[in-house]
Amino acid sequence: MHAIVAAFGCDERTRADWWARSGRQGQAVHEYLVEPPRDLGQVQADELRVKQQGGIVWMALAMMIKTRVWLGGEGSEQRDMPLIRRLIERVRRCAARRPLLICTDGLVSSLRAIRETFRDPVHTGQGGRPRLRPWRNVLIAQVVKRYERRHVVETERRMVDGTPARVETLRRRSHGAGVINTAYIEVRPVGRKEASASGQTAR
Question: pTM for this structure?
Answer without folding.
Answer: 0.78
